[in-house]
Amino acid sequence: MRLYAAIDLHSNNSVLVVIDAKDKVVYEKRNPNDLQTILAQLKPHKKNIQAIAVESTYNRY
Question: What are the residue ranges spanned by the domains of the chain?
Answer without folding.
Answer: 3-55
